[in-house]
Amino acid sequence: MVEQTQACVADILRKGAKTLSLGGDHFVSLPILREVAKTHGAVSLVHFDAHTDTERNDNPYDHGCMFYRAVEEGIVDPTRSVQIGIRTDYDKDKDQFTVIDSPTVHRIGIDSTVGKVRQMIGDHKAYLTFDIDALDPAFAPGTGTPVPGGLTSNQALEILRGIWDIEFVGMDIVEVAPDYDHSEITALVAAQLGLEFICMQAALKQNAP
What's the whole-number average pLDDT of the chain? Predict the structure, then answer.
């Protein structure tokens, strides 16, 4: 699966296009980032999630450790990256990423969150990864590891709209689990997030000099 994913992404990038990956296990970000880095060098990461996914373990295919591995491999620059919506334990001393956790987003609001993201990323090329469990289970119940206290759909969409002109080189939307998705509301918001990314890219192209 890893080799097939990397080959597919490499083919897309060779054609000068960007990737938008939709689906399941968040581990898929790692093979995508490996190919992205071959084209663009180490990128910033804008990561929406309930979990930091920076665990240290020996499982090479674990969806809880791929961003630790991405830093270890030198394909993501953690000093120019941000994780949004986190609300599970993480090691502030070991993890190098800037975290804007879910309580902070609720407290400071959308505009301040956008400002922090923009300040952190600057003019660096970035990769956007959205684990659907960044959203509160009220808005996205169809996922394997739901955690109460997450972002609302509106918060997530407005934050994306506030960073539309960051130079994103690709995006994935992951961890949607149809078997748990009441009335398909999780799939609906995931589709909207993908549409927002496409619109962001169109706006960038339209405003290019």
Answer: 95
Q: Which domains does the chain have, with CATH numbers?
A: 2-9+20-203 (3.40.800.10)
The candidate with the shortest Cα–Cα distance to 44, out of 13, 85, 83, 86, is: 83
**Lowest model confidence (mean pLDDT) among 54-63, 138-147, 176-185:** 54-63
Q: What is the pLDDT of residue 159?
A: 98
Q: What is the mean pLDDT of residues 138-152?
A: 97
CA angle 27, 153, 86 (to 5 degrees): 50
Q: What is the pLDDT of residue 90?
A: 85
Dist CA 174 CA 32 (whole Å): 13
Distances 178 to 29, 43, 188, 209 between C-alpha atoms, Å: 20, 31, 11, 42
Q: Is the pTM of this model over 0.85?
A: yes
Strands (E), 79-167: 82-84, 98-100, 126-131
Q: CA 33 to CA 120: how far, in whole Å?
A: 19
Nearest 10 degrees: Cα torsion 13, 53, 75, 71:
180
8 A C-beta contact, residue 174 and residue 26:
yes
Mean pLDDT of 5-24: 96
Q: Residue 94: count other Cβ atoms within 10 Å of its Cβ.
A: 9
